[in-house]
Amino acid sequence: MRNNNQRPGGRGGSGGFSGQGGKPRGGASSGGKGKRPPFGGAKSGASRSAPFAAGPRGRGEAPSRSFTSPEAGARGRSERPAPRGYGKAPSRSYESPEAGARDRSERPAPRGYGKAPSRSYESPEAGARGRSERPAPRFRAEAPPRAFETPVAEPRARAERPAPHVPQTPSGAIWLYGLHAVAAALGNPARHLRRLLLTEEAESALAGTLPRPWAITPERTDRARIDQLLGRDMVHQGVALLVDPLATPTLAEALERPGPVVVLDQVTDPRNVGAILRSAAAFGAAAVIAQERNAPEETGALAKAASGALEAVPLLRAVNLARTLAALKAAGLWVVGLDADAPPLSGTALRERRVALVMGAEGAGLRRLTRETCDETAGLAMPGAMESLNVSAATAIALYELTRAG
Predict the structure, then answer these.
(1) Using one digit for the tens of pLDDT, what is the confidence trace for 302-355?
(2) Buried/exposed 200-231: b ≥16 CB within 10 Å, e otherwise
(3) The CATH classification of domain 174-243, taken from the options 3.30.1380, 3.30.1490, 2.30.30, 3.30.1330
(4) Is 25 strand, coil or helix?
(5) What span, in angstroms and rounded, lies between the C-alpha atoms of 16 and 11?
(6) So where are the chain's domains?
(7) Is the separation of the CB atoms in 388 and 348 below 8 Å?
């Protein structure tokens, strides 16, 4: 009977045949090179049941989680990175085994893995160099300190507003300006004069008000120079006089002069004080007393408003106004406080008395202790629609009422 496993012609081999077309199934032929074994199988003569050296995907031994290749041996981990989803997760510090005694790996940790950088962003390679020169990532950097915050710009109106001009005045001296104030100071022998600045036009006008010779030699200049010294908003009329403040007399010395005394209770506007001095000089007052505090100093603006009266009427300073009023009472003066709610002031009723007229500040009026210290309070008769007056205007009317009956 014919053997179906052999090809006609008597040729045979260790490998089998498919029986169709004479194609070999697996082994090599006797006379030539063998075909490629499927899946990298064993050579001719090997057992079919032996396991494959590297089987197809899904067969064989699963790779280790650390993805260590068997061929690596003592070399440690494979240099080939583990595929995503396999292998051992990298350590948080992302230290490579090959680093050895080296600190951290030079390769930065992937986003989402590894240890978060420190807030100071110090690189391990810097060592003793301190911080790394590489700036910290934006999402890792800390908020900038408050010291480096951009300052808030001030409002434009405030930035454009010019600062008030401060006259260039030596220590202990004041600038007087205006024709009448300067002429009165030049004619006052108690004044210590330092400098007199005049324009050509102002020199002629001053000579018409106060004839020569003057106690000081003038310096010819222009308006721009005086504007620089005093400020452009000062109405100096082309004349400026640098003087020392007047010496303040005592209360007893001031009371040697005839006439009433004007006492100011916290009147702070220098122009009002200057206008009151002008009214006091016009109605023959002996002196004006203001507080040591809460009252203006002797300045050019005050002297300009006084229009020369600062040289004619003494301006005294009182530390305690209530005690000063008590001293005036002891000297024989009748203290009258001007109050809008009091009966009208009558000069005829006060004809035989020497009066100390007390004026309060605008709006606030007399303070409680000052009112209680007065001998009486009086007001001004105002039949019109207005209920109050400026303190300097009220002082002028009250002084007129006191002096007209005498």
Answers:
(1) 999 999 999 999 999 999 999 999 999 999 999 999 998 899 999 999 989 999
(2) eebbeebeeeeeeebeeebeebeeeebeebbe
(3) 3.30.1330
(4) coil
(5) 12
(6) 174-243, 251-404
(7) no
